[in-house]
Automatic annotation (TrEMBL):
<feature type="binding site">
    <location>
        <position position="248"/>
    </location>
    <ligand>
        <name>Ca(2+) 2</name>
    </ligand>
</feature>
<dbReference type="InterPro" id="IPR002016">
    <property type="entry name" value="Haem_peroxidase"/>
</dbReference>
<keyword id="KW-0325">Glycoprotein</keyword>
<comment type="function">
    <text>Removal of H(2)O(2), oxidation of toxic reductants, biosynthesis and degradation of lignin, suberization, auxin catabolism, response to environmental stresses such as wounding, pathogen attack and oxidative stress.</text>
</comment>
<feature type="binding site">
    <location>
        <position position="68"/>
    </location>
    <ligand>
        <name>Ca(2+) 1</name>
    </ligand>
</feature>
<feature type="binding site">
    <location>
        <position position="189"/>
    </location>
    <ligand>
        <name>Ca(2+) 2</name>
    </ligand>
</feature>
<dbReference type="GO" id="GO:0005576">
    <property type="term" value="C:extracellular region"/>
</dbReference>
<feature type="binding site">
    <location>
        <position position="158"/>
    </location>
    <ligand>
        <name>substrate</name>
    </ligand>
</feature>
<dbReference type="GO" id="GO:0140825">
    <property type="term" value="F:lactoperoxidase activity"/>
</dbReference>
<keyword id="KW-1015">Disulfide bond</keyword>
<comment type="similarity">
    <text>Belongs to the peroxidase family. Classical plant (class III) peroxidase subfamily.</text>
</comment>
<keyword id="KW-0479">Metal-binding</keyword>
<feature type="binding site">
    <location>
        <position position="61"/>
    </location>
    <ligand>
        <name>Ca(2+) 1</name>
    </ligand>
</feature>
<dbReference type="GO" id="GO:0006979">
    <property type="term" value="P:response to oxidative stress"/>
</dbReference>
<feature type="site" description="Transition state stabilizer">
    <location>
        <position position="56"/>
    </location>
</feature>
<feature type="binding site">
    <location>
        <position position="82"/>
    </location>
    <ligand>
        <name>Ca(2+) 1</name>
    </ligand>
</feature>
<feature type="disulfide bond">
    <location>
        <begin position="195"/>
        <end position="227"/>
    </location>
</feature>
Length: 316
């Protein structure tokens, strides 16, 4: 409750100037929010990988051309879309957005953008796996959908091998701070990574034993067990923290103990300022919740589209 109230206060400061608002669909599609929530809940009932997938999908959307649903477009005969680009390996659960869109189209055709549906679904994903203490927030709406989606532009997404300077630079280009970087990386409290995404930390040619020296040794050996050299199992990998279906601050606790999955996570420890945020979040779920709401609102107000699609996979 307290968190919800505070996030409303934060929100009223933040959404000024983004063109988004809380009442955008009040007249044209009053049930939009509950309809998206119902679709997310229904999918989660049979697939517990859905929340992580939706949160990551929204991040990928916002970091390429703004939150304009470009990540949702399918490739066409003459265009290879973002979702077919290299970092897409774990993007999945697009069907949840399709289901939400169909339910919304049945109520108010051509009104609610796919970009808004994805932003709302990401909020639901977090709130629904947070129990009662986790973050939730009101998502300002009014995003438009874009008409362009290029696989080549997924190079704008940070790589798991990125160092601190690279991460900071990309976030900064989007007017996101190093606090946003640390906070949003907390999305790695949910979900799973394939071996290829952290291969560089456990089978490296740059160190005598092949290990990233910042990894906790027993954690490193468990990662190696899951991902042997020349691993051929496509589905092999590791969860991003020890409680990977719950939105909590475990990611930060593990990060401090040398138990993060990506080099990009470990890189957040290399600066005193960001290390301070990590310590704060590791010690306080409440501090993390509040910061997460704030940073999600900032990331999801990067807009960019031109139209409202009828089908999230195709331009109008
Ligand atoms: C800071 C730079 C970031 C990098 C380099 C990064 C990189 C990655 C990589 C490589 C994966 C695993 C892909 C795979 O192997 O299947 C992943 C998974 C994930 N990321 Fe990030 N990420 C970043 C930021 C974020 C942000 C900002 C969010 C959301 C707020 C996020 C949410 C997730 C989630 C939820 C998963 C798990 C997806 C699933 O299980 O389906 N990440 N990330
Ligand atoms: C794709 O190619 C077809 C046939 O060449 C063309 O008619 C269509 O305009 C192209 N679409 C786009 C989006 O470029
Ligand atoms: C991701 O990209 C690979 C090729 O890079 C492709 O085979 C795969 O189908 C893509 N996944 C999705 C969800 O489009
Ligand atoms: C970042 O802020 C600057 C200055 O206010 C603005 O010109 C620029 O468009 C912003 N960039 C993004 C991606 O919002
Ligand atoms: C993995 O493959 C490389 C090159 O294909 C080979 O040199 C190496 O010995 C292999 N390692 C293991 C543990 O099989």
């Amino acid at each position: 409750m307290e968190v919800a109230l505070l996030s409303l206060l934060i929100l009223s400061i933040l959404h000024v100037g983004t063109g988004l608002s809380l009442n955008y669909y009040d007249k044209t599609c009053p049930n939009y929010e509950a309809t998206v929530t119902a679709a997310v809940k229904q999918a989660m009932a049979t697939d517990n990988t859905v929340p992580a997938a939706l949160l990551r999908m929204h991040f990928h959307d916002c970091f390429v051309r703004g939150c304009d649903g470009s990540v949702l477009l399918d490739s066409t005969a003459n265009n290879t879309a973002e979702k077919a680009g290299p970092p897409n390996v774990s993007l999945h659960a697009f069907y949840v957005i399709d289901n939400a869109k169909s339910a919304i189209e049945a109520q108010c055709p051509g009104v609610v953008s796919c970009a808004d549906i994805l932003a709302l679904a990401a909020k639901d994903a977090v709130a629904l796996v947070s129990h009662n203490w986790g973050p939730t927030w009101k998502v300002p709406v009014g995003r438009l959908d874009g008409r362009i989606s290029r696989a080549s532009e997924t190079s704008l997404l940070p790589a798991p091998t990125s160092n601190f300077a690279q991460l900071q630079q990309r976030f900064n280009q989007l007017n996101l701070s190093v606090k946003d970087l640390v906070t949003l990386s907390g999305g790695h409290t949910l979900g799973f990574a394939h071996c290829s995404s952290f291969q560089n930390r456990i089978h490296s040619s740059n160190s005598a034993n092949g290990l990233d020296p910042t990894l906790n040794p027993s954690f490193a050996s468990s990662l190696r067990k899951a991902c042997p050299a020349n691993n051929t199992a496509n589905n092999a990998g590791a969860t991003l923290d020890a409680t990977s279906t719950v939105f909590d601050n475990m990611y930060y606790k593990m990060l401090l103990g040398g138990m993060s999955i990506f080099s990009s996570d470990a890189a957040l420890l290399t600066h005193p300022k960001t290390k301070g945020f990590i310590t704060t979040f590791a010690n306080s779920q409440q501090a993390f919740n509040l910061a997460f709401v704030k940073s999600m609102l900032r990331m999801s107000s990067l807009t960019g589209g031109q139209e409202v699609r009828l089908n999230c996979r195709k331009v109008r």
